[in-house]
Design brief:
By secondary structure, this protein is of the alpha/beta class. It contains eight helices and seven strands. It has a seven-stranded mixed sheet with strand order 3-2-1-4-6-5-7, sandwiched between helices.
């Protein structure tokens, strides 16, 4: 059955954001699929890639924001929020540029935000049957962060490290000044909680990377868990300013 795609609140008022670093081989296909299926603008934030990521994204029809050097995922996504804020977009949906996220699920993630039922909607690879299979260290880490987020925020989260999400104008404006810089997905929950933002999850499909490998290796898993846990706990007590 063909998926019904929700219509944007206004023409051009939804921005699809794709942060990318060294994604020359995959970014073109992701951009082309998004532009073919949805009437939304597509922004690729080229995070200082030394390869042809920028050119491949432009050729596929994306708006490209070239950062002068690598800021990391938090800085790249925050740059996109600044772009969306300054140009008056009503909603932003973020997907990865490596082919892991199913472009057809963009509509599903956007729908609660566009309908006004949520400030944020996160695509979860663990709701329903999605076929996702991760490494043991990765799954252990996800379960740890799930427990942490649910304990401190009251949200009922199944996929706290998901990089597939949509947010409304309110969160775009807030995150443009306050988005966490390093491994931001987990920290974002405590910030949403402190804003009393409404957050929901919907099931999405996630595939193995088409090219390259994840930046989070088995060797880094314990370091990553400790670092993100400390950052999350600090954000619990830090003033928003």
């Amino acid at each position: 059955m063909e998926q019904e795609v929700p219509v944007a609140p206004e023409a051009g008022r939804v921005l699809v954001v794709i942060p990318a670093y060294r994604e020359e081989k995959t970014i073109g296909a992701v951009v082309s699929a998004a532009r073919a299926q949805y009437p939304y603008d597509v922004l690729v934030v080229n995070d200082g890639s030394p390869d042809g990521t920028s050119g491949a994204a432009r050729t596929a029809g994306a708006i490209v924001l070239d950062l002068p050097f690598n800021l990391g995922i938090g800085g790249a996504v925050q740059s996109a929020f600044l772009y969306a804020r300054d140009r008056g977009y009503d909603a932003v949906v973020r997907i990865d540029g490596d082919g892991q996220h199913e472009v057809e699920d963009i509509g599903k993630v956007l729908e609660p935000v566009i309908d006004g039922r949520a400030d944020a909607c996160i695509g979860s690879r663990f709701l329903g049957y999605t076929g996702y299979r991760g490494s043991i260290p990765r799954i252990f880490g996800i379960h740890h962060f799930r427990w942490l987020v649910n304990l401190f925020t009251g949200y009922h989260v199944t996929d706290p490290t998901s990089g597939f999400f949509a947010i409304n104008r309110r969160l775009v404006e807030f995150y443009s000044a306050n988005y966490p810089s390093d491994y931001p997905e987990v920290d974002a929950y405590i910030l949403m909680h402190r804003l009393n933002a409404r957050a929901v999850e919907v099931p999405v499909r996630m595939y193995a990377r088409a090219e390259g490998k994840s930046s989070i290796t088995t060797f880094k898993a314990v370091y990553y868990m400790v670092k993100v846990t400390l950052s999350f706990l600090i954000n619990c007590i830090r003033s928003l300013g």
